[in-house]
Amino acid sequence: MEPRISVSSFRDVAxxxxxxxxxxxxxSFVNSVSSLERVGPSPAPPxxxxxxxxxxxxxNLINYMERYTLAGVLLNTQRFFNIxxxxxxxxxxxxxxxFLLFAPLFxxxxxxxxxxxxxxxxxxxxxxxxxxxxxVTEHLFWFLVLxxxxxxxxxxxxxxxxxxxxxxxxxxxxxxxxxxxxxIFIPVGSGLGYIVGASIASLTGDWxxxxxVTPILGVIGLLLxxxxxxxxxxxxxxxxxxxxxxxxxxxxxxxxxxxxxxFLWSTLGVTALAFLAGALAFWTPTFLSRAQVVQGKLQPCTxxxxxxxxxxxxxxxxVVTGILGVCIxxxxxxxxLDKVDYADPVICAVGMLxxxxxxxxxxxxxxANIPATYVxxxxxxxxxxxxxxxxxxxxxxxxxxxRRASAEAWQISIGHLLGDAGSPYLLGxxxxxxxxxxxxxxxxxxxxxxxxxxxxxxxxxxGGVFFxxxxxxxxxDKKAVLQVVQDPSVTxxxxxxxxx
Length: 500
What we know:
By secondary structure, this protein is an all-alpha fold. It contains 18 helices and no strands.
């Protein structure tokens, strides 16, 4: 009877204590620009590993705060530049597009060179461009668009590489726990982005001051990365320090990923999740504000600063649901994964499919009852947040250690390209197209965005289906990776041939 394979199985893996043949190739363990040693040094001590995770979590927090600060002051931004919904959505789209275009480059570099240096360089670019974007004037909208695109380049370096460093510091249940902690800061940072952005805009009377907070906090993150973040050997913690360093070509890496069905289907699931997250995060506060205008509970925004109430509430809901969802998702994964090999993608499917009726309830309740709408938002966001810690863990245990940065990069690129790169802009285009039939009506302005949101439940169903297909293939792909870690003389190419 074939033994079950789980994430926690990696704890007990002990690779043979021998030097490996130069003919063996399943990835690149290059740990610096100039180093190609046969056997890498031991991984960072546990205490240092925990400190590194804390640093990476802090930078992840700042990363997502910056990403959604603009959404928290979107009404002010639209009023300042006098721009339409589709043009406003373009601000998020250009950011995500540059993010996804450069992610594969950083993935390639991250599998071959010093990851710490790559993250530091990217963070410096991010800090400079994020600060520059805050000095835009009302006649220089194009400058804000340019700076937002450059911010995406800096963030791509960090988001692509940070999870792989955590994967090389811990194994088994500890790695799952550390990944969960890391991903908690996605919704926490996103929610704080709304709250801090709206608060600073309200206090100063100028929304541009909101864009200056995260660069200041980012300087602290940069210093922490320099002094406290290691660059652990790739996969050494799983193979007890025995690491092959013979690099493979990038072409071979891509071929490997294209044959990895769990990676491909889970990436499609990530894409659907990113589509929903991008659309909801960017437009929900504006959607609720327009609903309150229709109900007569809020005056239309004609002069800055616009009301920030919905940004505060939605930001708080995002923080709470993110923490709750990530904790529930991680707990379910730890509870079921040792018993059911395919538990992780099934949990993600339940989260996606379960959110659909509550998304529909959110869309159709907003015009009648705002408190009830927030209840439905709370439930739907909690269900969607179940997926965040599990997705990263899936990638780490279905892809061999030396190709994880490339896998992370391509998953980010595809997820953003077909997901949140286009969803804010697409909803804005749909809204503008409908609103053009009656541009002076506040009610029609609300209804146009409402009809645009109807695309989200359909995407949620697709995402659930993608994760269910992932569940069909995941046991075989986990076994393949574990086989490579246990016996490095078996190459991933041979394993792919076996699967055929």
